[in-house]
From TrEMBL:
<keyword id="KW-0067">ATP-binding</keyword>
<dbReference type="GO" id="GO:0005524">
    <property type="term" value="F:ATP binding"/>
</dbReference>
<protein>
    <recommendedName>
        <fullName>Protein kinase domain-containing protein</fullName>
    </recommendedName>
</protein>
<keyword id="KW-0418">Kinase</keyword>
<dbReference type="Pfam" id="PF00069">
    <property type="entry name" value="Pkinase"/>
</dbReference>
<keyword id="KW-0723">Serine/threonine-protein kinase</keyword>
<dbReference type="InterPro" id="IPR011009">
    <property type="entry name" value="Kinase-like_dom_sf"/>
</dbReference>
<keyword id="KW-0547">Nucleotide-binding</keyword>
<dbReference type="GO" id="GO:0004674">
    <property type="term" value="F:protein serine/threonine kinase activity"/>
</dbReference>
<keyword id="KW-1133">Transmembrane helix</keyword>
<dbReference type="InterPro" id="IPR000719">
    <property type="entry name" value="Prot_kinase_dom"/>
</dbReference>
<keyword id="KW-0812">Transmembrane</keyword>
<dbReference type="GO" id="GO:0016020">
    <property type="term" value="C:membrane"/>
</dbReference>
<keyword id="KW-0472">Membrane</keyword>
<feature type="compositionally biased region" description="Polar residues">
    <location>
        <begin position="66"/>
        <end position="83"/>
    </location>
</feature>
<feature type="binding site">
    <location>
        <position position="197"/>
    </location>
    <ligand>
        <name>ATP</name>
    </ligand>
</feature>
<keyword id="KW-0675">Receptor</keyword>
Length: 447
């Protein structure tokens, strides 16, 4: 039994203590309900007495000589009588005895221990989850270090086997290249292959780009984003280990000269456009911090075995905080896909990515590169040419000649979406989530 003086409840400033006791100890408990009623009665009585005393004081201050017997009786009635005081003292005593009960002490102790233990368990589980996302392998021979993100495809990787395959890579294994490095096809066994991007060291800007790409891609898992399985850090170079896309890039499928390559039909082109828009929308709106790709083009849209689009190459990706709308950096990207404001302000924004996607959508519709030789000869460009065609409602004449059969209305709708993405004023361009919604309203694959 621990002594506890509860007379402080007489003061209204401490009445919140009673409320706390009621909420946590008294609620739904008949044994303690008497305590609740006693304390509440005591507090209400105190308020009534205080009000009456204030009335008497006001009367006396107005008429000092008017303190009559009636006022005296009012003062006397403002304080509890002997029986009332006994009942109040009895209630306080009952509350003091119950508050000192070992049951309450045990209850409070158990609650505190449960709270502390839950915090410890949650912290342990979070750490275990974080540590389980990646596996670090030290290579004593080359002094390098490989970090593999937890995924079924990357479980077979080991530092020695990976390095042996890496040393045998040659120009015939090259499947692409960009401003930050060269991409190779690395085959581990008959069932497992990766796309490995080699970044040469010695350039601080390249190293910063490597770190930026790593942090942007490491934890992103989305069906329309190319997965990063891991990376390798060595003295002379860095390697990024990507998921390999068996059907290559959209640029190769649209503009490749292979005789074995079949033209893309309209349903496939529509699915690629919608998948790419879904991936970019995920980067813009769902990733924290939000990601601006800054180099959206047909060669950075890869296709898996089901011809689903995957957005790739975050070597130029720029992270920004959710409350920011742009990132001021050196202009980077590919000529023909860059929004016009890049050349004026040097600002990378999500609306710039929307413009670049609009150019890719025109590529899917027309089958022409934005830097096509025919446009250079005529002194124009793909965007300007298509805008004139749409204005004159001659969209059918601009459609890719290899696309023999297509639904006219749906193609016109796609042209209109591209035109909205290509507005010269960035504020008039829709957000990527809106672009995706407009594309999904095209009904060719929905019906």
């Amino acid at each position: 039994m621990w002594p506890l003086d509860l007379s402080f409840l007489w003061h209204s400033n401490y009445f919140w203590v009673y409320l706390l006791i009621r909420d946590h100890l008294v609620r739904n408990d008949p044994y303690y309900s008497r305590v609740s009623r006693a304390v509440l009665l005591l507090h209400r009585s105190r308020i009534q007495y205080t009000k009456k005393v204030k009335v008497v004081v006001a009367q006396v201050s107005q008429d000092p000589t008017g303190f009559t017997a009636s006022s005296s009786s009012l003062v006397q009635s403002s304080f509890p009588t002997q029986p009332q005081r006994r009942r109040s003292e009895s209630s306080i005593g009952t509350l003091r005895d119950m508050a000192g009960s070992p049951v309450i002490a045990l209850y409070i102790t158990i609650c505190c221990l449960a709270f502390v233990m839950s915090k410890i368990i949650i912290s342990f589980l979070l750490y275990k989850r974080w540590a389980g996302k990646r596996r670090i392998i030290e290579d004593s021979l080359s002094g390098g270090r490989m970090v593999v993100f937890r995924s079924p495809a990357a479980q077979s990787l080991s530092s020695k086997a990976f390095m042996k395959k890496t040393m045998k890579l040659s120009n015939k294994d090259i499947i692409g290249s960009g401003g930050f490095g060269t991409v190779y096809r690395l085959t581990v066994d008959d069932k497992t292959a990766f796309a490995v991007k080699r970044l040469n060291k010695g350039n601080k800007d390249t190293d910063r780009g490597f770190e930026r790409e790593l942090h942007a891609m490491g934890d992103i898992k989305h069906r329309n984003i190319v997965s990063l399985h891991g990376y390798y850090i060595a003295a002379q170079f860095n390697l990024l280990i990507y998921e390999l896309m068996p059907n290559g890039s959209l640029d190769t499928l649209l503009h490749g000269k292979s005789s074995k390559q079949k033209p893309l039909d309209w349903p496939t082109r529509y699915r690629i456009a919608a998948g790419a828009a879904r991936g970019i929308s995920y980067l813009h709106h769902d990733c924290i911090p939000h990601i601006i790709h800054r180099d959206i083009k047909s060669s950075n849209i890869l296709l898996d075995r089901n011809m689903e689009a995957r957005v790739s190459d975050f070597g130029l990706a720029t992270l920004m905080h959710p409350d920011q709308t742009h990132v001021s950096t050196i202009v980077a990207g590919t000529f023909g896909y860059l929004a016009p404001e890049y050349f004026d302000t040097g600002r990378a924004t999500t609306k710039g990515d929307v413009y670049s996607f609009g150019v890719v959508l025109l590529e899917l519709l027309t089958g022409k590169r934005p830097t096509d030789e025919s446009f250079i000869e005529e002194g124009t460009k793909l965007v300007t040419w298509v805008k004139d065609v749409v204005k004159d409602e001659r969209q059918e004449q601009a459609v890719d000649s290899t696309l023999s059969c297509f639904p006219t209305e749906e193609v016109k709708e796609a042209f209109q979406i591209a035109e909205k993405c290509l507005e010269s004023d960035p504020s008039k361009r829709p957000a990527m989530a809106e672009v995706l919604k407009m594309l999904e309203q095209i009904s060719s694959l929905i019906n």
